[in-house]
Design a protein that fits this description.
- By secondary structure, the protein is an alpha+beta fold.
- 45% of the residues lie in helices and 17% in strands.
- It is built from 26 helices and 25 strands.
- It has an eight-stranded mixed β-sheet with strand order 16-15-14-13-12-11-24-25. Strands 17-18-19-20-21-22-23 form a seven-stranded mixed β-sheet. Strands 1-3-5-7-6 form a five-stranded mixed beta barrel.
- Helix 1 runs parallel beside helix 3, helix 13 crosses helix 14 and helix 13 runs antiparallel to helix 17.
- The longest helix is centred in the middle third of the chain and has 30 residues.
- It is globular and about 90 Å long.
- 41% of the residues are buried.
- The N terminus is likely disordered.
Length: 839
């Protein structure tokens, strides 16, 4: 049945009430995240909603219906957002957990089979010898209080040290471990997951040091029996559907691509494949979303029609296939959204009545917002619905315009030959790619900071090929569930197709301008650019106003890209110390926008994949002048390569000790660091005592180590940097001094003081993350700093041996205070603060 172009008149006398309802609900949810709920706002919201209902009933005129819809929608959105995101349920296990580690004993049901995963990610994960861990989500049913188990709710993500495969979905277990709550954001740009956790009743993590602390739990007869049976059946279905993947004779990247696109797995070489696809604008092919579910529904429809069933039964059978597929793949937010959208359209089709697709899409968005309000603020939600809406409204007219331009457009089916059908299919693919790329690019730039100019044509070319791979994969999954031996026969062909596709993406990645990093853009710019892109696609070259507006917006981005990010007016030097646990990462900027990243690492070597790049982007930095690695310890450079791919530095500066270490161990992590930096086009420069490093208009002096110095301990080879900031008060002509020490230890401290007697500084980095060493306290006190920034994890948080050195000065610790910002003003003033209040 062909959908109607406009919805039939409903209760409200305007064309698409779903769109107005969604806008009102979205406004209410947005308001709930900025206005703390209290009794008065909640009562006013309820009163407004009741008044809206009364107005709708009593005054059915068009204007009153519109006002009632808007007011009621805003009130309902506010209530949903406030109720779901500002507090946990009264019986949640999260309410029994403290701010730090809490020893708990709980009973619950395992939601999935246990998965053994590496504890590290990132470029240097293979150089870290951490034992793998077992992870599994636990739905809590009871919590021990004073020796008695009481009912509780909530989900805990268990991490068990070691390897165990005995934990199966649906099992009822009793676990003892340390519970960790969902932490507040530590760095700029880091999303606050606490409201999201409250929405999902996710209490946090449960650390279990040994599998011996997990045992079976007694359960009342019949309790949760149906739920447990469902979990076991779903796990068995997933194992059967993915059994054929073990026979794939392909490399790790091809296996990761197939696992992600077909089964939603994110293991092995997934991060590498994801980065490659993102750089060429094809990242949407990996994450299971509306595209994959639409293709699955299309393949299922073809199979159903081959069976020659009744036409009105077809949508029901396709919907059943979609539901089965939803049970096989992980129920992540994107796939759930896509499934609900698909099922909504199939339900509308099954009725055989006319319907407005855009209005139905809006009502589906309303239902999702009411169920999970915070999904509204996620980029996945925005991109999914925006792209689908654009395809509904814009793709068809754009396809027809392309066919008219080449003289192949016709409305008479009898006149459509093979030539017309092929041209129509090509035009439809290109129109869909251009439409989705044009309207979603501003949102991608706002959230991610990436522009893929070749994304539209590459998508048009890649989607048909990728669809063929998915078709073979879906067939293998179906056969794997009923006849695994037959599914294995398809594995070689599928592996060859995946390998060929990856080779094509590798070639596309080498094409110039395939991907560009963009400066941070404001939300208003993204919204305005999306509107302009919509109008340009809809009106083509005839819409001169929208075209001019789009050109002006592009010019705005270009001008912003040419400017270097600079601190606030009056700030001569700004140092942002990111919270990276046991590691170090300092962003140093001057008044002209010069940028230097001092160290970039942590004992968690995946810190450069997301944490550091997103923090830099939130601070307004999307490119770097200089990356300095102080010395060859992994916790000072483990995130450097992952960060350098996102925020390309113009040069990297290292000490002689790094070069010597790379020569000593040519297959070690330091040699890997230097080789990969050169591969991605970052020149490496070596410095020693007496050399200078430019930070915009400022000059930083390298004070240590001297050229040719060979330390007995690697930490004593740490580069020591001094940055002088002149005071422009018109009279004194003085200066402020900031110093960075890396992991300098007592031998290096003594050598530094011999070369620089009377050394003083106003702002310093605590040497070696604040580790206590003989002579370190005297060294710090002798510098007479006013501000000390200690980058460390919790292990050095409460060391009383530093108490004397802390007196009389500001002493910031990232493990306690989060990211630290220190500003040195050109009049000599110094201000420092943290990203969150002290606990």
């Amino acid at each position: 049945m062909k959908p109607a172009k406009a919805s039939a008149p409903g209760v409200f006398l305007f064309r698409r009430p779903g769109i107005a309802s969604f806008a009102a609900l979205a406004s209410g949810v947005w308001l709930s995240q900025r206005v703390e709920p209290s009794s008065a706002p909640a009562l006013w919201a309820v009163a407004a909603m009741c008044a809206a209902c009364a107005i709708t009933t009593a005054l059915p005129a068009r204007r009153w219906g519109w006002a009632a819809l808007v007011v009621g929608g805003v009130a309902l959105g506010y209530l949903a957002g406030a109720a779901r995101t500002h507090s946990y349920p009264s019986d949640s296990v999260a309410l029994a957990m403290g701010e730090g580690r809490t020893l708990v004993r709980v009973e619950g049901i395992l939601l999935e089979d246990a998965r053994v995963e590496p504890q590290q990610r990132g470029e240097f994960a293979r150089f870290v010898r951490d034992a793998p861990a077992t992870r599994v989500p636990l739905r809590v049913t009871a919590l021990e209080r004073e020796g008695v188990f009481v009912r509780a709710s909530g989900t805990l993500w268990m991490r068990i040290d070691g390897v165990t495969h005995a934990l199966r979905a649906g099992s009822v277990v009793r676990v003892t471990g340390h519970a960790l709550p969902v932490e507040p954001p530590q760095n700029p740009g880091e999303r606050d997951f606490r409201p999201l956790a409250r929405q999902r009743n996710l209490a946090g993590r449960l650390l279990v040091p040994t599998p011996g602390l997990i045992g079976p739990a007694s359960e009342t007869e019949g309790e949760h029996r149906a739920w447990r049976a469902f979990l076991r059946a779903r796990a068995d279905l997933r194992r059967a559907a993915s059994s054929w993947t073990d026979r794939l004779d392909v490399d790790a990247r091809s296996r990761a691509m197939l696992g992600a696109a077909l089964l939603g797995e994110r293991e092995g070489a997934y991060r590498d494949v994801q980065d490659r696809f993102a750089r060429v604008g094809l990242a949407h092919l990996l994450a299971i979303s509306g595209l994959h579910l639409g293709l699955f529904a299309w393949f299922t429809l073809g199979l159903v029609r081959a069976l020659r069933v009744a036409r009105r039964v077809e949508p029901l059978l396709v919907a059943a296939g979609v539901i089965v597929y939803l049970l096989i793949v992980p129920a992540n937010a994107p796939i759930v959204r896509a499934a609900i959208m698909t099922l909504a359209f199939l339900a509308a089709e099954s009725t055989g009545r006319r319907y407005d697709r855009l209005n139905l899409l809006a009502w589906t968005a309303c239902a999702l917002v009411l169920a999970r309000p915070l999904d509204l603020l996620s980029p996945g939600f925005q991109l999914s619905f925006l792209a689908v809406a654009a395809l509904i409204v814009l793709a068809g007219p754009l396809r027809d315009a392309m066919l008219r331009r080449v003289g192949l457009f016709t409305e008479d089916p009898d006149e459509r030959g093979v030539r017309h059908l092929v041209a129509s299919a090509c035009a439809a693919a290109l129109a869909a790619g251009v439409t989705a790329w044009a309207v979603t690019t501003p949102v991608v730039m706002f959230h991610v900071g990436v522009l893929s100019p070749l994304g539209a044509p590459l998508s048009a070319l890649a989607v048909p090929v990728f669809a063929a791979i998915l078709g073979v994969g879906y067939l293998a999954m179906f056969l794997g569930a009923i006849a695994p031996s037959v599914a294995v026969a398809l594995a070689p062909a599928l592996g060859a197709m995946a390998d060929l596709f990856l080779r094509a993406t590798r070639w596309c990645e080498s094409v110039p301008l395939s991907s560009m990093t963009t400066p941070p853009v404001p939300a208003w710019w993204a919204a305005l650019a999306t509107v302009c892109a919509w109008r340009v696609v809809r009106g083509g070259t005839r819409d001169a106003g929208a075209t001019v507006a789009a050109i002006l917006l592009c010019a705005f981005v270009g001008v912003s890209a040419m400017r270097s990010p600079a601190p606030e007016p009056g700030v001569a030097l700004r140092i942002d110390t990111l919270s990276v646990g046991d590691g170090s990462c300092h962003l140093v900027r001057d008044a002209t926008g010069g940028t230097m990243l001092w160290d970039c690492g942590s004992t968690w070597v995946g810190v450069g994949e997301r944490d550091i790049p997103e923090a830099l982007r939130a601070l307004g930095v999307w490119r770097l002048d200089t990356l300095v690695i102080s010395h060859p310890n992994l916790d000072h450079y483990s995130g450097a390569l992952d960060t350098a791919r996102r925020v390309r530095p113009r040069e990297a500066i290292v000490g002689e000790s790094l070069v010597h270490e790379a020569r000593r161990d040519p297959f070690g992590p330091v040699a890997h660091l230097l080789a990969r930096l050169r591969e991605i086009g970052v020149p490496v420069r070596t410095v020693a005592s007496g050399d200078e490093i430019r930070i915009g208009a400022l000059r930083a002096e390298t004070l240590w180590p001297p050229s040719g110095f060979a330390a007995q301990r690697p930490n004593d080879d740490s580069i020591v940097l001094r940055v002088r900031v002149p005071i422009n008060d018109g009279a004194s002509g003085g200066e402020r001094v900031a110093m960075l020490f890396g992991d300098l230890e007592p031998a290096g401290m003594r050598g530094l003081l011999e070369r620089e007697p009377g050394l003083r500084a106003d702002v310093i980095e605590a040497p070696h993350h604040g580790s206590f060493r003989p002579g370190a306290v005297e060294f710090v006190r002798g510098l007479v700093p006013g501000v000390v920034v200690q980058s460390t994890g919790p292990s050095r948080l409460h060391d009383e041996r530093w108490d004397d050195a802390k007196r009389g000065r500001e002493w910031w610790i990232t493990a306690r205070d989060g990211a630290i910002t220190t500003r040195l003003f050109d009049d000599g003033a110094i201000f420092s603060g943290s990203s969150r209040p002290r606990r």
